[in-house]
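Continuing the batch. This is chain 6 of the set; chains 1 through 5 are on the previous pages. Same settings as before, nothing changed between runs. Recording input and output for traceability.
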Amino acid sequence: MAKRKTKNKVKKKMPQGVKLIILFAVFLLYSFAVYFKGMGILGKFFRDITLGNFGFFGFLMPFMIFFVSLFAMNKNLKKRRAALITGVIILFIAFLLFVDIFKYDGIMKINYFSLEGVKSSFEMGKAFQSSGIIGDFFAVLLGMIIGRIGIAIVSITMIVIGVFLITNMNLRKIGMEIKAAKKRKNEKQRAKPQRRG
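Output for chain 6:
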């Protein structure tokens, strides 16, 4: 019996406060590594990997990981967790695509079926000339199928979907609220006393 009790004690989960402290420490280290160049060999490695894969939007990666981790840890967001995390990821990919609309001609020359092409995309991401390997991959794939205008439509649609998922907005509810607001406005106008000439 005593052995079982000790095993149960060992199996206890890490306190939420400790998890938050570790998460915040990791967030700070990653942020400083991405934003500043004086973080040693490991900092340079993380900076190059982040910017090479995501371009300018790599600067948002520490915040994205931090908030996604917070959503995953928060028990109060259990029902909304999947929608929030999905919304953040969709928004991030949408912004990557949106940047590549303006770099379209350059990235469409990249051959992603060769190692040289992947290296080229990585270097362009580090130099903020594209959305890095990840963004360019989606942009080139969509560009071959639906072109630049198609990418613009897809990215704007994804931004709207991402915002709706994060904010939990309901189109029907919004429509009803607009209708109710118009009704109230009309009622106020009718209630105003008419001036006599």
